[in-house]
Amino acid sequence: MTRFATVGLLTACAVGGVLLALLVSPWWWLAAGPLAAVALTGVYDLVQPWHSVLRNYPVLGHMRFLMEALRPELQQYFVERNYDGRPYDRDTRSIVYERAKGVAAEEPFGSERDMDDRGYEFLVPSMAPVEVRDEPPRVRIGGPDCAEPYDMALLNVSAMSFGSLSANAILALNTGAAGGGFAHDTGEGGLSEYHLRPGGDLIWEIGTGYFGCRTRDGGFDAGQFAEKAAHPAVRAVSLKLSQGAKPGIGGVLPGGKVNPEIASVRGVPQGETVISPPYHRVFSTPRELVRFLARMRELTHGKPVGFKLCPGSRPQFLAVCKAMDAEGITPDFIVVDGAEGGTGAAPLEFADHLGMPLTEGLITVHNALVGSGLRDRVRVGASGKVATGTDIVKRLAMGADYTNAARAMMFAAGCIQAQRCHTNRCPTGVTTTDPHRARALDVEDKSARVTRYQRATVHSALQIMAAMGVRDPSELGPHHLRRREDHGRFRSYAELYDWLSPGELLAAPPPGWAADWRTADPDSFTG
User: Fold this and answer.
1) H or E segment and range at residue 140
2) What is the sign, positive or negative, of the torsion defined by CA atoms of 282, 283, 289, 294?
3) pTM score, two decimals?
4) Calpha distance 121→332 (Å, rounded)
């Protein structure tokens, strides 16, 4: 409430100055004029819907926009001194912000990237490009055991929980998803009214804490799950095994964020830090995992069911493939989360050193499913610093069917990467449960930005594919993506990685996979 008091005080001082100027001496106009201008600016900042920073920091917040106007010069200053340590590069953030605002994301004087670097990647353009599709393609999610398949967009909102994000942020993301016709993953924090109210398509994520379908002792409540999964907004259910920034440990929500509403949604005590277990209680082997997925699908009456993981061990994932084959049970989808994924509640060493990056994880999962003869029954999603059309096309070329974005969607909803998520003092109202700070996020304005960002990014992906001579994502392959190995030498991803043929692991595993295939045990996650 300090901002209201401050603007009120400025207004009172301005009124007092005007009265003194009228009644005492005209010299008071020297003070009254600037005070009135500042007071009017503060009032405008509090009521305007476009800039969350100004709604929380009237008058002072304009300093940020002054710095933003000087950004190219300041960026060069910081780059020269190796001082820019933010987790997302400036160019990517600029693209997201500009697309969200409906501004063409184009820069004068060309690319600033050094194309002579080893490791530089590029997508292969065609000498015979094709026309850009009028309508973006959809991906049918739903295997042979699914009664209610869902058509997924190429880019969707990745998992971010209510509690980690504010109610207004959830409303903005879901309203944006409803307006753009794409899916919104709830994150593991349960189903709230803010997810359900706008009517956007939901992927309900169930984590190790079973929030929203939790027994008093922290187990899985099948009755609660079936009741909530029946909601028409819930289009699919995702079981979270692990996530990119913290594979091997559960989620953490600081007690200061656990207000009565969040405690009710999650089924946990108010004011206490919520730490999800690192493992699931309802299964302990790959075979039990796939059986539990089948049970979840039965409880949803045939809605798509899948799981999310950040891969680390190839034999462990092959063990799951063996369990699928042995039981005749497959998930409808698998989301591969790269280790470069982010969260406000991950230990630094976990975020930096555990789990495969998205490229290796995605290629591993895709190949394992192909080699096991299961790929045609399972759709694969990719998440982990997906933000641009190029990111989408690259992941599709590596084997994904669709992509999810978290931080980019947060940027579109107003996040400025202040990196204060864990303090509950987010300056833009995105990652806070403080209702006074969350008020800064105007749902109508930010939901429109989310829709614009997703639509423009998918269109960019379609433009890139058309320039490559590709009419449909199914035509993309690893030969479309190349990496510089040395000066004058490029290799395609088809050459850089081993790509299995359908059923090859079942028939005769190639030398590079044979040992891992022998090690994989459908009754154990060891390996």
Assistant:
1) strand 139-141
2) negative
3) 0.85
4) 31
**What are the pLDDT digits (tens) for 101-160?**
887 656 554 555 556 677 889 999 999 999 999 999 999 999 889 999 999 999 999 999
Q: Please report which residue ranges of 300-380 form alpha helices under DSSP H.
A: 314-327, 348-353, 358-371
Residues listed for the chain: 527
Q: Can you read off the two tokens belonging to residue 161? A: 């929980």
Residue 399 and residue 481 in contact, taking contact as beta carbons nearer than 8 Å: no
Q: CA separation (Å) from 297 to 99, 250, 357, 388, 504? A: 37, 24, 30, 33, 29
Encode pLDDT of 85-95 as tens digits.
Answer: 344 565 677 78
Percent of the chain past pLDDT 70, that is, above it, reads: 83
HEC profile of 49-91: CCCHHHHHCCCCCHHHHHHHHCHHHHHHHHHHCCCCCCCCCHH
**Residue 85 burial by CB count (10 A; 0-12/13-18/19+): exposed, middle or buried?**
exposed
With contact defined as beta carbons under 8 Å apart, do 381 and 402 qualify? yes
Q: What is the DSSP string of 355-367?
A: S--HHHHHHHHHH
Domains in the chain: boundaries: 2-85, 139-469+499-516
Residues with Cβ within 8 Å of residue 414, at least 6 apart in sequence? 52, 169, 172, 428, 429, 430, 441, 446, 449
Q: CA-CA distances (angstroms) from residue 282 to 2, 97, 198, 286?
A: 48, 42, 32, 12
Largest CA distance in the chain: 98
- β-strands 183-185, 201-206: how paired? parallel
Q: Tell me if 441 sits within 8 A of 354, measured CB to CB.
A: no
> 139-469+499-516: which CATH topology?
TIM Barrel (3.20.20)
293-305 in b/e form (b: 16+ CB < 10 A) is: bbbbbebbeebbb
Identify residue 214 by its one-letter amino acid code.
R
CB half-sphere exposure, 352, CA atoms < 13 A: 4
Structure tokens at 493: 């991803």
CA 303 to CA 226: how far, in whole Å? 11
Question: 271: phi > 0 → left, psi -120 to 50 → alpha, else beta; which?
Answer: left
